[in-house]
Amino acid sequence: MFQISDDERKIAYFSMEIAMESDIPTYSGGLGVLAGDTLRSAADLEIPLVAITLCYDSGYFFQEVVQGRQIEREVQWEFSSEFERLPNIIELDIQDKKFKVGGWLYKMQGETGFEIPIILLDSNIEGNEHWQKKFTHILYDATPFQRVVQEMILGMGGVKMLQSLGLHNIQTHHMNEGHAAFGIFELLKKYKNDLEEVKKRCIFTTHTPVPAGHDHFNHDLIRDVFRDRLPENYKELGGEYDLNMSLLALNGSRYCNGVAQKHAVVSRKMFPGYEIDGITNGIHNRFWVNPYLQHVLDDRIPGWTMNYQLLQNVWDIGNYELWQTHQRAKKKLMDYEKSHSWVLLDENKLTIGFARRITEYKRPTLIFDQVERLGKICKKRVQFIFAGKSHPRDEQGKGYIKQISDMSDYLYDSYDIGVVFLGAYDMDLAKLLVSGVDVWLNNPRRYMEASGTSGMKATLNGVLNFSVLDGWWIEGYQKDPMAGWAIGCGPEDPKATQHPDSWDASDLYTKLEREIIPLYYNNRDGWSERMKHAIRLSSYFNTHRMVEEYALRGWQLTPQTRWKTNLDY
Ligand SMILES: *Cc1c(COP(=O)(O)O)cnc(C)c1O
């Protein structure tokens, strides 16, 4: 049997999506990007971890936007050139049939050369029937039946594949979101239905307060797929009325956490009676920094890529130098924009960026709430760049893309304001945007944003956040209010969820007019100083710090474990 060379791996990290590189399409958005950054930091810090995900032969989808309409194109990619085929094959049962699951290997390498193996499971295996080969065809676009099977492959298949690979020292199965919770069924088999033995070996991270983000499956469907292979107490574990994957994960884990402090509080309300810790998300700074700033940081703050706390020393960079460095990143974004859109932008104008999944709770069109007021404030001075994908079946989300595109025509004709919606959103475009705009806008409906990470990417690149106090920004703004601006009332204000949208929009216009625009055009030194406040926040909001918190509280690694810690938060 083939074995992964280091069998001292202690943690298995399960995630439905992992964004390894921008052009490997095994991710759809925030969850996958976070998983990728987690593994990048785990590799840098030499954490003994192995990751499991699925190998989607058609990925998510490639996005084209034509006249405000999102068109989804199937992704063509040759993953055999990126991954190495593992010889191991395991078997799973579905209904009254068996099917085979194979694996591919990708190695993520850290700063010191240490490698995290990522195992990508697929059912496109010789011997499987045609319909079975399609189980791992595409990410997040499946019938409930296919979805159950995908999650079965991830959870149960993952546990079996680890055994087949000879990884017998796994002490922690980390379910990154509830998708992998069927792994608990597989472990129950292994430990003769002793739930306590299983719980000792599992932890769970929940990622969203949006109810639709938690998978529920009809019990009839579950019984049809699993037949007599369900544990006796499956309803106690997963719910009486339907099978809730988050509940199953909570019941099968020794430790659970949300992804920002506020999100942990909200999650405890969603799942009363469970202890839910908070570990605030981060980003992998070296991966997300733009090349111009990286050059400056490498020169001025040597060693910063191993110890992100050193970013506290950002004050050593001069105002003029920092401004010029940012202008180069901005020019790069503008060059890209020029070759992908007809709208004329100007690199000397204050530029506001908004890019994330385009869906209702993110309120992507809030900025247009009072369009004439916006027009007057921004006339000839401010321009906007939008990007982001809508889920293929989210018609409302796609409607927002159309609205933004219509606004673009109107504001251009009436106020000489450039508004662009760029298609083909992926990590490469995200990187260009978070480093090339001046202000990063985020205005979700309150308590719907678990953490959000794009704002952290902006911060690292010296881009100032302009955001509703939700998710990570509650903490970011509290640590340093000079790193950006807050939109609307504070998170503890009883009116926070009762205000109509127009309250937030009004506050947004006022701050834009009175604070942001004047500072940008009249006080370049003041702006540059604020950029340093932003960059300094990244000494905390990064995945090195986050991974160390998981290591201590979640994975319970002991100090003897090989693990390069140098941090003290
Ligand atoms: C960072 C990132 C996200 C997540 O952004 P949020 O602010 O958390 O919504 C989504 N997609 C891509 C491509 C990203 O790089």
Automatic annotation (TrEMBL):
Entry superkingdom: Archaea
InterPro entries xref list: Agluc_phsphrylas, Glyco_trans_35, Glycogen/Maltodextrin_Phosph, Pyridoxal_P_attach_site
Keyword set, alphabetical order: Carbohydrate metabolism, Glycosyltransferase, Pyridoxal phosphate, Transferase
Keyword Protease: no
EC number: 2.4.1.1
Pfam families: Phosphorylase (PF00343)
Top enzyme category: transferase
A single GO molecular function term of this UniProt record: 1,4-alpha-oligoglucan phosphorylase activity
Cofactor (UniProt): pyridoxal 5'-phosphate
Stored NCBIfam families: more_P_ylases
Entry similarity comment: Belongs to the glycogen phosphorylase family.
Name the record gives this protein: glycogen phosphorylase
Organism from which the protein derives: Candidatus Lokiarchaeum ossiferum
Source lineage: Archaea, Promethearchaeati, Promethearchaeota, Promethearchaeia, Promethearchaeales
